[in-house]
Design goal:
globular; 179 residues; 3-stranded antiparallel β-sheet; 7-stranded mixed beta barrel; 4 helices; alpha+beta
């Protein structure tokens, strides 16, 4: 394991659990967001009731995660006090964890285990939802994509816990913008 990887793993081990603050299900592509207090995570599919659950089984983009800290940063860049999470079209809002350290990691939320992967880059729709510059303000703060590797119930207030890697080293890049 190289020096950078050892340092990154040290930082990851020090991450305290976060909290699940918000759950939103996208009923259809470009459709309304249904805010719920709990949801069933389905292995290899996503969140029950979300349109992505009906798409390609095994996709790495079954669930999207953003942090309340990222939302605050986006709001500041846009000169706003608050941004409603429904405008960002992500599934889960967590707080208290540095998402930059959680790429390519497993997270337990309630009964479910999610495996994070690529950055969830903003699309041009963010300019529609947030105003001019919305997509630019979200760049680097769009959150993470994840897949469900263990199903189960997820509910508001659940702890979000990074699980220790089963491998002794993480072969993934440190580059935060590398998909």
């Amino acid at each position: 394991m190289d020096r950078d990887t050892r340092f990154l793993e040290k930082l990851r081990r020090e991450i305290a659990p976060g909290t699940l603050e918000w759950i939103g299900l996208r009923t259809e592509r470009r459709g309304e967001i249904k805010i719920v207090e709990s949801v069933q995570a389905l292995v290899g599919l996503g969140l029950e009731g979300d349109h992505r659950c009906l798409k390609s089984p095994g996709s790495a983009r079954q669930v999207t995660i953003i942090s309340s800290e990222y939302i605050h940063q986006i709001a500041q860049q846009l000169g706003k006090d608050f941004i409603d999470p429904t405008l960002l079209r992500r599934n889960l809002v967590i707080s208290g964890m540095n998402l930059n350290l959680l790429r390519f990691q497993r997270l337990q939320i309630g009964e479910a285990i999610l495996e994070t992967s690529a950055l969830c880059d903003p699309c041009s729709r963010m300019d529609e939802n947030l105003g001019t510059g919305g997509a630019a303000a979200m760049f680097g703060y769009g959150g993470l994509c994840a897949k469900v590797v263990k199903g189960g119930l997820i509910k508001l207030g659940d702890a979000v816990v990074r699980l220790e890697s089963e491998k002794s080293s993480n072969p993934r890049s440190l580059n935060l913008f590398d998909n």
